[in-house]
Structures are given as structure tokens and as C-alpha cells.
Amino acid sequence: MNQAVSLSSAIATDNAPSALSNYLAAQQEKSFLRFITCGSVDDGKSTLIGRLLYDTKLIFEDQLSALEHDSKRHGTVGEDIDFALLLDGLQAEREQGITIDVAYRFFATDKRKFIVADTPGHEQYTRNMATGASNCDLAVILVDARHGIVTQTRRHSFINSLIGVRHVVLAVNKIDLVDYDQAAFDKIVEDYKQFASGFDFDSITAIPLSARFGDNVVERGPNLSWYEGPSLLGHLESIEITKDEQARPFRFPVQWVNRPNLDFRGFSGTLTSGRVRVGDEIVVAKSGKSSRIKEIVTFDGTIEDAVAGEAVTLTLEDEIDISRGDILTQPDHRPHISNQIAAHLIWMDDAALLAGRSYILKIGAQEVTASVTAIKHKVDVNSFAHEATTKLGLNEIGFCNLSTSQPIVFDKYEENRETGSFILIDRFSNQTVAAGLVWFGLNRADNVHWQAMDIDKAVRSEQKHQKPKVLWFTGLSGSGKSTIANLVEKKLHAVGKHTYVLDGDNIRHGLNKDLGFSDEDRVENIRRIGEVAKLMTDAGLIVLVSFISPFRAERDMVRSMLDDGEFAEIFVDTPLETCEARDPKGLYQKARQGEIANFTGISSPYEAPEAPDVHIKTGDHSAEDAALKIIRQVLGDDGIDPDLADFTI
């Protein structure tokens, strides 16, 4: 029944204040269901939701009038109302007739309240679909009765299963276009249940329907007399969803340390699971420090207990060190802590995921630097087979090992969605590039601890009377990097400095001889050299690294591995045509002839530094001048007298 009609009827039969109060109380007591609609392009997802809202009389008169007008202008169903336009709100969607973004709608019936996420069908927008499913309890997966099970059906079903959606409605839409044929419906149901049998769905309910004409959306209608199950709305209103976050262990991610004055220090956030009472003992997951709850503060005052989903501020009986990103938990059910995890990744970026590349991992309020150390496999969405790979492309799903710069606190995703899910963020564009689901922690490093030494970097540096530094020379092959780095080292050696040159070609004869020149191998090449350079700075050396290092991400990764001020990026800027004219090793000629694959500047890109510490334009400087400029700009404040180094070797 229309909610407005229900309210009007209640008020008409009772005095208005009490009727309104009773009505609002009844709304509060209704159960709540979040569900997602997904499927391939033009399976009728938006039309289905539009019809659902229309048939339950949840569209206002002005909305209906606007819909009728828009249907004439943008509609695809002739003179009829195009219900898809209720949700396809983006102009680009209306022009193309597809859904791009995730459209959320709230509605309610006499029995239940709903939030529905209408998600895109195109493969390139699979990331939007995964986002929409992340908070849902049920998935309505649409299938066109004419086409049956397609690749997107498989992909969306797999993602829903992976993300933890446990109830599925297989909505066989456009049944009117196959003359309401039961045999066509039964064949699709059989095919779906066969491939979905390995998924962790608690229920799969198949419903034939026609979103355009309303058959079996709210009412069964006369055309499906052979079908004995519920209508779509009937099923959504009656299905029982078991989801008791309060029964899970207490988890409270600290989002903000609330310190308005010297007399108050509280920790604000939202309980992701469990419950907490005044007097309960709590533990800071990472540090292990414990205390008891002194007060639970809300906007309306203090309360005695709080449950999952509530935003509160907790105060403690003891002054212990807690900051944003920490997780408070109960002592007897603590989360995992590790700097190594195994996780499923749904890749969401046009640029491929490369093992070894550095990203920002955000899990709750925790933010750390992380990299994928190994891609164990990717999933073929047609066969669900595990395939070996070295990278993940847009919308591909892989199982990976990740390493974080410092330990993170987490639960397994199947145990707690909130503390078991994370995102990866590109460090330069700040774009989210992946959604991750923690499958388990890797405890391989639990028995490996950093061994403290009495002789450290400071002592070694003092003995050598210098500050350790990495001078990172980057530029195209033939740009003059190695020549200039060699000159700089000779000048530094002549004035008594302790140095070492790591040259790209030389390193590939030993440490990195197992690596090729694919993007993945280039990333690993720089990661290894970064680790070596870090060890050499720990020894107190001035390290000169001469590598093409074509990707900004890896150069900045090495910078982040070192202490502030220890890394200087030196861009040896030589035009491609000049490098190619020099071609001292004949490499450009071979690359042009196709004899060398993935050659930087020819068949593989070079990402020039945007703000290098030293910019050497070789057309304006001789190698001698460039070496002196580098010493002056990078080492002039480190106890090296530029005048002493200002001589010709």
C-alpha cells in the first residue's frame, strides 16, 4: 500500500498527533533490506526498479509528470512510460541508454524498508557494481530471457559471492519477449544453478518477470499461471536475512581523538561490530595496552552501552596512547596484526596492477604504504579457473600477497566486512585503483624481527665524515647518466668521500640478471635497487644510482624508503633524437627494427620527472658542468666544499 495513503488513513481514524507518533514508531520497527540490481547491458535493471516504484505507488505526481515528459524525449519504448528514466539520471546515461553510475533509491512498503543500488551493466563499469554490492544483503541478478546466461551474469555472480552477498534473486526479465515460455525459463534456471553451485550463496530464488509490463514485479498477472512462486516484491518483503553485527566481537576504529579542552579526552568513531558497555575492559589492538570504558558520549548525552552502527565517543579510565587509525577491541577476541596479507583484489584502474609498485592501502582509518609482492592468480570469469599472471587489468580479479610498510590491524573479510576490506590508492593521482578483501594474514614474518645493532647509520656516517645520500640519475638510454654519475663519483672520491655507483647495465649482469624488460620486471628491477641503495646509505655511503627507471611511481617509492633529505632525483634531460643519434650501443637501431621489445622511448614509455631535485639539460651543459652543478646543488650543504671539487679530472 502507498505509504502516504497509509498515513492519511491512520490520521483520519485517530487524533493527528498520536496517529503520527504511532506511524513513525511503526516505521522505526520495520526491518531493513539493502539489495543490488545487476546484470548485463539492457537487461532492464533500471526499468525494473522504476516499475517497482510505480506499481507500489511511490512516485509523486510531479515525478510521474516529469517521467512522462522525459519518456517522450528520451524514452525507448514508444508511447509508453520508460521507467528506466527514473534512475538513469546522468545526461550521458540518457543519451546512451545505459546506466553508468550507481543509483541509490530508498523506498518502503507496509512490511519493510529498502535501499536499492542500481548498478551499471557495461564491463568497464564493473568497479561501480562491486562498490554497490559491498553493503548489500541480497542481489537481484537480471537475465534477458532471450539471451540466457552471459559473461556479465557470471562476473556479477562471482563478485557478489566474493564480496559476501549470500542471497540471490535470479530475475529472468523480458519473459514477454519469449511468449512467457516456461521451458525457456527453466533452461536459464538450470544453467545458472549449475555454474553457481560452487558459490557460497545461502539461497537462489528464480523469478520470471516482465519489468516493462509489470508481470510478477508486484503482482503475478495473468500471463504466468504456470509459475507458483512469489512475485519479486513479495520475496523481497519476506526473505529473512541473518545479519547480527552485534553478535560479532567488539571493533571500534578510532576516527578522531576528541580533545576540546584539557579536561576531556575521548575517542570518536562508529562501532563496526559488537557492543560495548561502561566498565568494559578494552584493548588497543596494535599496542596491547588496556583500560576500561569510563563514559560513552553521544550528541544527546551519555549512555550506558552502544551497539554496532552507532557513532559515539568513548572515554577511558586510564591515559593510554591512542591515535587515529587505532582499533579498540575486546581482550578475548582480538583482530589479526601483520605486515603481510593475502587478499582478493578487484582491479579498478585503466593502468595495470604491477607487482612491486607502491600504493597507499587504506583499511578503515589506517593508512600505510603497501605493495603487491606476488599475484598468485587471476580468475577467469567464464570458467572460474585460476590463471597464472604477472599483472591485473581493469575489472580483473586476482588473489595476491601484499606487504605493508608497517603492521596493520584486520579481520578476515568473511568474519568482518568492515575490518576485513580495504582500498588501494594511487600515490600520485589519489585515485582508488583497487578494492581488496583480506582472506588471511601471512605469518611468515612473525618469527623474523629486526635485529638492533650497536653500530648504526649515524655512527658509520660520522666515521666517514659525511652524510649518506642517494643521487638517483634518471633519463633515456644514451642520455649521459652514467657518464655524469662517473664524473661526480671521481670528484667526490678525490676529496675523500666514500661513494659507490650502481649502474643499470652492470647490475643486470648479476643481481638482476633474471629480470627482463616488461613493465613488471622494470618495477622489480627498481625495487631491488632501492633496497640495495637503502642498505648502502645505512652503511654511510653516498650512492650514485644510474638507471633509466622509466616510471615515476618507482622512483618515488625509493624516495619514500629513505629518510628525509637522503634522496635526490637528477633528471638527465636529453631529447630522444639526440640519444638515438648517439646510440653508443646500437640499441635504438635494434629497437626500431623490432629486435628489442619494450625499449624505453620507442616501444615503452618514459615518465619524465615533474619536479626533479636537479634538472640537467645536456644541450645546455657539458658533462663536466653537469657534475659540478649536481655537487653544488645536492651536496653543497653536506660538508663538501664545491670549490675543492671544482677541477677537471
Give the radius of gyration.
31 Å
Q: Architecture of the largest domain in CATH?
A: 3-Layer(aba) Sandwich
Catalogue the unreliable spans.
88-100
Strand content of the residues, in percent?
25-35%
Helix/strand-derived class?
alpha+beta
CATH class of the largest domain: Alpha Beta
Give average pLDDT, whole number.
84
Oligomer: single chain
* SS element count, helices: 19
Considering the protein shown, what is the CATH homologous superfamily of the largest domain?
Answer: P-loop containing nucleotide triphosphate hydrolases
Kindly, what is the distance between the CA atoms of the first and last residues, rounded to a whole number of angstroms?
92 Å
Main sheet? 8 strands, antiparallel
**And the CATH topology of the largest domain?**
Rossmann fold
Shape: globular
- What is the share of helical residues? 25-40%
Number of domains: 4
Q: State the total count of DSSP E strands.
A: 30
Fold and architecture overview:
With 649 residues, the chain is α+β, with helices and mostly antiparallel strands. The chain folds into four domains: 3-238, P-loop containing nucleotide triphosphate hydrolases (Rossmann fold); 245-329, Translation factors (Elongation Factor Tu (Ef-tu), domain 3); 336-443, Elongation Factor Tu (Ef-tu), domain 3 (Beta Barrel); 457-645, P-loop containing nucleotide triphosphate hydrolases (Rossmann fold), CATH 3.40.50.300. Helix content is 29%, strand content 28%. The protein has 19 helices and 30 strands. The strands form six sheets. Strands 7, 8, 9, 11, 12, 13, 15 and 16 form an eight-stranded antiparallel β-sheet that branches. A hairpin with a 2-residue loop joins strand 19 and strand 20. Helix 14 runs parallel beside helix 15 (552-561). It is globular, with a radius of gyration of 31 Å. 38% of the residues are buried. Residues 88-100 have low confidence and may be disordered.
